[in-house]
Amino acid sequence: MTGPRQALIIANDRYDDQGLKKLRAPAQDAAALAEVLRNPEIGDFDVDVVHNAPADMMRRRIQGFFNDRRRDDTMVLHFSCHGIKSESGELYFAASDTDPRLLDATAVPAQFVRQCMSRTRARSTVLFLDCCYGGAFSRGSSSVRASGEVNVLESFAGAKSPAGRGWAVITASNSMEYAFEGPDLAENSAPRPSVFTHAVVEGLETGEADLDADGEVSLDELYDYVFEHVRDQNPNQTPSKTVEMQGDLHLAHSRRGRIKIAAVPSPPSLRAAINSENAFTRQGAVHELGARLQDDRLPIAEGARQDLEQITSNDIRQIAEQAAGALRGIRLAPSPDRLDFGTVEAGSSSQQKSVTLGGPPLARHCVAQSTQSWLRVEPSITGLNVRVETCIEGHLTGDVVLKGVADEAVVHVEVVMTPAPEPETTPEASPPHSTQEENTVVVHHPPPERPPRTDRSNEEYARREEDETGQQDRREGGPPSRSHRALALAAAALATATAAVVTAVLTIQATVAAVGDRSADGSDGNIEDNVRAHGALTTLTISLITAAVALVLGALARHDLDGRRELYTRSASNAARTMTTISKCMALAALILVVLMLIVYLVGSRWW
Questions:
Q1: Do residues 346 and 393 make contact, with C-beta atoms less than 8 angstroms apart?
Q2: CA distance 265 to 302
Q3: Which residue among 38, 90, 210, 365 is buried most deeply as judged by most CB within 10 Å?
Q4: Is this model's pTM higher than 0.70 or not?
Q5: If you ran DSSP here, which 8-state letter would residue 264 be given?
């Protein structure tokens, strides 16, 4: 995957109009999707989330998302909201301030999105529509009635960009699945739309969408995985896809495959023993390969493992069994292989247990993947730390899958998440007309009321929207706030490196002047006096110190980038790395110059 990768997630779950029922899934779906797309080991996208925005802000963010793109850009736009079909058959995406009687003014037409997609120069554009579709709005009524199928894909026909490679639209359903009766959503409606986005997140996060196990998740593979997952969950819901694109589009990296180690071949003498006609010689070779299998150097151990695999398939039974016995020593052996966290209160601090991995280094070298979004895995000195996020209620089960060079193992995890106790409130403290939807797994606070727009600029309004979106993400456990520590350290490193170079140049000038004065003084002169008089030692010392400080600051900046890469956007990371590279080159050049001058001074001062 090459070129810039941008994603915009639009999630609306609260609506001013009473005819549009509040949705339960979009907020948590947006947070989960943003996390997996932003992960540099999976999607490596720069992600923006727009939550509960009015129609004019949605249109501005969508058009700005597609504008000023380059040919090698990859764009992903995801909608999680109500979809509405007008009486004339046109499709609209509902905003927080959508008025059913004023769709053109208060909603986002699918035609507008199609035009933005067709005008962009981006190489590839993918549109995900996780929408529940309502019927046409009757004139003079705010209720919604069914009016046949919502032909979603036809709304995007002819959207191919003449400048890019193409586009694709994947929708959770292409037919009427929700019926509105008066102000409320019918209780017998189809399931909430999180089934679709959950399948997208799960397929990318676990790598199970990598159907051909080539290490990359293509668009077609993701659709096939999502289609099967959604149909299993709800046979009445059928995802649909339309594609106008040349070649394959890789949406994400896959962490599904086993670890691959470049093997070091066995020495020629050992190879000769493996291929010897004498059975006792081959038995001795198996014994030696078993010893090499325990080596701390993984390439050597992997070379021995591959030779033993060949012997188990090609040699006589006695020697093959001996080789198989040696290979059993590198099987993955997690202890324990079952973790029961018992009963945990939802919303409490995350719970953690440890898993120990036994065996030689080659056996312990593996990839650990969780099958559930609430299950987290982190490496430890002795094995793994398994952590449970307390964000979902119910009896939860999941697995941590361990994949080594030639073996797999599973650690089964169970936890019972009980609801958090209701906080005690007085009638005066309770907000008027407050309601809480039944069976809600995570409580989300609505965003603060946005005051009416005045005569402020578009830039200021967009900046406020981004700030509110970031605050909402943090309240709902979404993406963490961005960091600027590495940028500050890199800038400081560049400044001190510049100072080191400047003082090195001043040292050279002072030294040249001191040598000239010493030559003019003749036999009565003293080079040390001339050097001190021109301040060459002072500038030399300053140059040494500032060069060393620049190297330290640059190392700290890179350490912060590598250790907390999820907190930095691609542009911020690239800028910090560029500054650290420049400062390192400048500091090393200054350091080499002043060290050479110091050596020449110490050695040659006795002769002057």
A1: yes
A2: 9
A3: 210
A4: no
A5: P
